[in-house]
Amino acid sequence: MNLIEGLTNFNLTKQEATLYVLLLKAGQLTGYEAAKQTGISRSNTYTALAGLVDKGAAYVLEEGKVTRYTPVAAAEFCTNKINRLEEIKEDILQQVPVLTNEAEGYITIKGVQEIINKLRNTVKQAQARIYVSANSRVLELLKAELAEAVGRGLKVVIICGKEFSLSGAICYHTTKQNEQIRLIADSHTVLTGDLQDDEDSTCLYSCKRNLIDLFKEALKNEIALIQLQKGDING
Predict the structure, then answer these.
(1) Rounded Cα–Cα distance for residues 120 and 138 (Å)
(2) Residue 115 · residue 201 · CB < 8 Å
(3) What is the maximal distance between C-alpha atoms in the chain?
(4) Is the dihedral of CA 84, 88, 94, 97 positive or negative?
(5) Do the bridges between strand 202-206 and strand 189-194 make them parallel or antiparallel, or are there none, so unpaired?
(6) Is-contact 229 221, C-beta < 8 A?
(7) How far apart are alpha carbons 38 and 22 in whole angstroms?
(8) pLDDT at 25
(9) Cα gap 173→160, rounded to integer Å
């Protein structure tokens, strides 16, 4: 993700993000100077600068008849946005209907980020045990959540490449080259899929007992094979 794209996730338009980065580099600019340096039309520049002020990303400096703009520090701007979203989140959670029953079918989740989000949230919500099989690259994306689960006293079993390790977890090391991932939480939910094709990646999520049992057996067999191979090497 590049800088401009990242800033658009904080409710800035691309033009606003472009001007914000320019202000961070320059310290302060007039609308005329900003338009000249970016090539954005003067009318659009002034509109975008006003947007930055309204969204808490810039301040106005009055110097006589000349209006100049100066940026809010990036860390401060981002933190303010996150804090405000947390406040809005609390308001929403107090008002929305409570989900009484989780869907019991087979749910397809598309896109790498959405899959990672679901994996992370499933680990966070687990209460007793987690079994996960994936390569080291994928596991690094989940390492913070898995470490937190270990810290909560959960049993965490990981089948992974030799490059990955996690203190407090039971790790079975093997060769894992593909992007496939399998995760079972509390013998209640299962996720399986791959992160091979970026936005075309898909993952299956389900609470179906038959699918959970199938994948539990598959993971047990994978662990048994690793132990058998290790025994052959040691022998």
Answers:
(1) 11
(2) yes
(3) 85
(4) negative
(5) antiparallel
(6) no
(7) 8
(8) 95
(9) 5
Cα Rg, the chain, nearest whole Å:
24
Give the mean pLDDT of the chain. 89
Q: Which CATH class is domain 3-75?
A: mainly alpha
Give me the percent of the chain exceeding a pLDDT of 70: 94
Alpha-carbon distance values, 233 to 158, 162, 166, 179, 230 (Å)? 21, 15, 23, 26, 5
Give the separation between CA 56 and CA 125, rounded to whole angstroms: 34
Q: Could you tell me the fold of the domain covering 106-234?
A: Endonuclease; Chain A (3.30.870)
Beta strands in 57-105 (DSSP E): 58-63, 66-71
pLDDT digit string (tens) for 61-87? Answer: 877 788 999 999 999 999 999 999 999
- Pair of tokens at residue 82: 């996150």
Regarding beta strands 129-133 and 180-185, do their DSSP bridges make them parallel or antiparallel, or are they unpaired? antiparallel
Domain positions in the chain: 3-75, 106-234
Query: How many CA atoms, within 13 angstroms, populate the side-chain half-sphere of residue 157?
Result: 15
Predicted confidence (pLDDT) per residue in 196-222, tens digit:
766 778 889 998 888 889 888 988 898
Give residue 180's pLDDT: 86
What the block records as the tokens of 230 is 């290790």
Helix axes 31-38, 14-26, angle to 10 degrees: 110
pLDDT at 26 (0 to 100)? 94
pLDDT: which is higher, 64 or 182 = 182
Report how far residue 103's alpha carbon sits from residue 125's, in angstroms, rounded to the nearest whole number.
16
